[in-house]
Amino acid sequence: ASPKRIERMLKVVVALCLASASAFSFGSSKTAAPVGVDEMEIGVQAPAGFYDPLGFVAKDGPEAFIRRRAVERKHGRIAMMAITGVLVHNADIEFPGYLSISEDLKFSDVPNGLKGIFTVPAAGLAQILAFAALVELAWWPASNYSGDYGCGFFGTQYEGEEKITKLNAEMANGRLAMLGIAGAMFAEGQTGMTLAEQLDS
């Protein structure tokens, strides 16, 4: 990666970090929410407060709301991983070695952006889907609406107000990441250029 590209990517990362600090925000389960955590309070942040313009909570009840909140949390987590992957890959930071020895395909041969998924061999895509199924069905099951899988934040467990603060930050960052990855995908689809190519142009 050229120093100019790395510098631009760092600026993007810093901008995203600063934006996430002031991210705007909108707005029981098969497995109950964590003790001391009211799902109706998580993600309720200024300036919108509790944002439910279509009245889903009043119409469908709290059980449906908690399920939707669990889905939002999961999508936010996936989007945070996705946008991180976009930034890292567009900075030309790749694993060393081969993605597929039999096809003589190195990790560095995989193009940035949406084109990259079409370069991964079918066996690699099958492994990705199998791992996702393992996580979804057994390891961190979707039936656990609380989103608390007992591993904490890099092993650190939080309680009380500090836990609420961390959960709110996760929700805000997840919402911002969903917008970020959607924007990156739409921009690439519209322009045909990856994030790095747009920064270089």
From TrEMBL:
GO terms for biological process: photosynthesis, light harvesting. It is found in: Plastid, Chloroplast. Keywords: Chlorophyll, Chloroplast, Chromophore, Photosynthesis, Plastid, Signal. InterPro entries: Chloro_AB-bd_pln (IPR001344), Chloroa_b-bind (IPR022796). Residues 1-23 form the signal peptide. One of its GO terms (molecular function) is chlorophyll binding. Chlorophyll a binds at residues 72, 77. GO terms for cellular component: chloroplast; membrane. The light-harvesting complex (LHC) functions as a light receptor, it captures and delivers excitation energy to photosystems with which it is closely associated. Energy is transferred from the carotenoid and chlorophyll C (or B) to chlorophyll A and the photosynthetic reaction centers where it is used to synthesize ATP and reducing power. Belongs to the fucoxanthin chlorophyll protein family. This is Plastid light harvesting protein. It comes from Phaeomonas parva.
